[in-house]
Q: What sequence folds into this?
């Protein structure tokens, strides 16, 4: 029950859902996510911690950057099912479409230098 509640709470915030939808497209660092979502870096970091604890995202280090990616749901069946379902959901959401359109212009070197 605890893991189910953790996943549902993580997905109850619109910004965290937006982050999940953007990470479906590409693995990103906090600076890049900040640029796309339009939140403070500390806020994005807090959202990432919630998503990580729910088993929805994990990360790897690349130089000085921490790069976030969606999990495959290995740790939690609930996370895996929700990530799979989310792939088909919210495809017509205007804000998400706009964020996806801006994704090719996001540059890690520039985003993290700001």
A:
């Amino acid at each position: 029950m605890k893991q189910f509640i953790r996943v549902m709470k993580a997905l109850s915030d619109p910004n965290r859902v937006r982050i999940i939808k953007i990470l479906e497209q590409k693995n990103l660092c906090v600076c890049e996510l900040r640029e796309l979502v339009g939140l403070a870096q500390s806020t994005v970091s807090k959202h990432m911690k919630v998503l990580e604890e729910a088993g929805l995202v994990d990360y790897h280090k690349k130089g000085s950057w921490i790069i976030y990616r969606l999990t495959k749901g290995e740790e939690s069946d609930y996370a895996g099912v929700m990530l799979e379902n989310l792939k088909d959901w919210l495809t017509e959401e205007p804000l998400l479409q706009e964020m996806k359109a801006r994704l090719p212009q996001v540059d890690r070197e520039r985003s993290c230098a700001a």
Q: What stands out?
A: Residues 41-53 form the longest helix (13 residues). The chain has one domain: 2-100. Strands lie at 28-29, 57-62, 65-70. The CA atoms of residues 29 and 64 lie 10 Å apart.
